[in-house]
Design brief:
The protein is built from 20 helices and nine strands. The chain is an alpha/beta fold. Among the domains are: 75 residues, no CATH class; 94 residues, no CATH class. It has a five-stranded mixed β-sheet with strand order 7-6-5-8-9, sandwiched between helices. Strands 1, 2, 3 and 4 form a four-stranded mixed β-sheet that branches. β5 and β6 form a beta hairpin. It is elongated, with a radius of gyration of 31 Å. It starts with a helix and ends in a 16-residue tail after the last helix.
């Protein structure tokens, strides 16, 4: 049992002096064990544990650490020792200072963020020059159902302006904006009834509450694709997007309109999720990984399912059901993952060796000599097998790697079995992980052509992990769903060497009219 803060607060010099020698030795042992464990924890970094690279402070990175080492060589050793002694003395003085109770954090209120009900609204003040007009006529009489004649008397009864990006002219660069005035006409039928054209609007959807999808929009589909690209791929906030549009193009859009556009784009892309899943389950290899994600303070997980040309992101709980629901009809290819227990349901899978090597590096750097020795030996055996796999891809040995390196594999197995019930928790955990997934881990030894890492999934998540640090996650279920869908489309377009915002523009344009969505960009022929 570890010493807790309650225990440490009772320990001081006077208490230690009163202890008998045998009790003092016992206390010292417990303190030593705790110090070693704490030192090992402090020594953890992305190179010797499963900690992500973003957890490392900027001043701890390699380039700056090397600069600090060069600077340290110019300092006088005696001055450094004196400074260290002074710091130690100051630390000892601070340790005996009384604990000061900090003031409690202010209590939160029930007031919701954003514009409050009943507050004054603001209308659009920027006047734009209309560059084109589009009339919408009803096709049939709403009363008698007869087709309306093209020359029948008509007039506009309402309409809206749409700002969009005009089609690019060959040989030109840059973006050209257009303003189209859409007019809804009312037409007089021969029966005397006046029929009115209506803009198309998607019916309500319980999965997308407060997210409307339809034609009546200020932001055109291609401009909407640009807003999605700026918000997700460029990781800009709504306010930064608004500022950029104003500074670069002189276009004024409110943050509310930008947010509505991004959510609408998510709903428009929703049918593509089934298409992405269908592509993924047919792939021969699937890389899977997950990272934490906050939804209005609720801890969820961002899942990444990555193949060579398709990427699917999902936001939800870290459970087996989450992955099973994504792969509804089952996945029969090779699943590549880390050691999370959920993935063990798939027998045809591979383990990420860099994850294992980092854990062995952590054992090798342990302050416990016995644990460090076991960690170094296991790390050396795994490195030998890894080098042999890379070499076999170029020049396969005639007898096969399992035969040539049978002694190394047997030694690795012996170390795992010998320390399966070890008293050291970190060593016991690592060797049990090896034993649980023994065949999965060593499968590439018999099949050297198989991948050794899960880098594809980790690299796919890296961009969105940075977005999480900036935005602190999402604020609603619809926002999480929209974020995951749009991120999936963007990453899939990037994998297929296609323009993400242009494709999203075609998707939004089709969805606003209730038409079938365009197919995903084709896989490049060179692939």
């Amino acid at each position: 049992m570890h010493l807790r803060k309650h225990d440490l607060l009772q320990m001081n010099d006077e208490w230690l002096k009163r202890l008998p020698a045998e009790r003092l030795l016992e206390v010292s042992k417990r303190l030593l064990d705790d110090v070693k464990e704490l030192h090992d924890r402090l020594n953890q970094n992305p190179d010797n544990s499963s900690r992500p690279p973003t957890s490392q402070a900027p001043w701890e990175r390699a380039s700056e650490a090397e600069g600090d080492q060069d600077l340290a060589t110019e300092i006088d050793p005696e001055e450094a020792a004196a400074e260290e002694k002074m710091k130690s003395a100051e630390a000892g003085e601070e340790a005996v200072k009384p604990v000061v109770k900090l003031p409690s954090a202010p209590q939160g209120t029930d007031k919701r963020a954003g514009k409050q009900p009943g507050s004054q609204g603001f209308g659009r003040t920027q006047k734009l020059t209309v560059t084109a007009t589009c009339e919408h006529r009803p096709e049939n009489c709403a009363a008698c159902a007869l087709a309306l004649a093209a020359d029948a008397k008509s007039q506009a009864y309402t309409g809206w302006d749409e700002i969009d990006i005009a089609p690019q002219v060959d040989g030109t660069i840059g973006l050209l904006f257009s303003v189209t005035r859409h007019l809804l006409l009312e037409v007089v039928c021969s029966c005397g009834h006046v029929s009115r054209a209506q803009s198309w609007r998607a019916p309500p959807d319980n999965q997308w509450e407060k997210v409307e999808l339809g034609e009546w929009r200020l932001v055109g589909p291609q401009l909407a694709g640009v807003l999605v690209f700026l918000g997700l791929r460029m990781r800009l906030s709504r306010a930064r997007i608004r500022e950029g549009l104003m500074e670069l193009f002189g276009l004024m859009l409110s943050t509310g309109v930008i947010d509505e556009t991004l959510r609408e784009a998510g709903r428009a892309s929703f049918p593509l999720e089934d298409v992405l899943v269908a592509d993924i389950v047919q792939a021969p290899q699937l890389n899977v990984d997950e990272t934490s994600w906050k939804e209005s303070g609720l801890l969820l997980w961002l899942w990444a399912l990555v193949t060579t040309h398709t990427v699917l992101f999902l936001i939800g709980p870290r459970t087996a059901e989450m992955l099973e629901n994504a792969l509804q009809d089952g996945y029969h290819g090779i699943l590549i993952s880390d050691g999370y227990v959920v993935y063990r349901a798939w027998k045809n899978r591979l383990r990420c060796w860099p994850h294992l090597m980092r854990k062995l590096r952590g054992l090798a750097e342990s302050t416990d000599r016995r644990v460090a020795g076991v960690g170094k030996e296991m790390e050396g055996l795994m490195q030998t097998l890894m080098d042999a796999i890379y070499a076999a891809r170029i020049d396969p040995p005639p007898e096969g790697l399992p035969v040539r390196y049978a002694a190394d594999i047997a030694r690795l197995r012996h170390l795992c079995e010998a320390h399966r019930m070890d008293a050291h928790p970190a060593l016991r955990s690592v060797v049990r992980e090896f034993l649980y997934d023994w065949d999965v881990i060593l499968r590439p030894v018999a099949e050297p052509h198989l991948p050794l890492s899960n880098n594809a999934a980790e690299q796919a998540l890296r961009h969105w992990v940075i977005a999480r640090y900036i935005s602190h996650g999402t604020r609603s279920e619809a926002g999480s769903r929209a974020f995951a869908l749009l991120a999936s489309v963007i990453e899939t377009c990037r994998c297929r060497k296609a323009s993400a915002w242009r494709y999203l523009g075609t998707v939004i344009a089709a969805a606003r009219q209730g038409l079938p969505l365009p197919a995903l960009p084709a896989i490049p022929a060179a692939a």
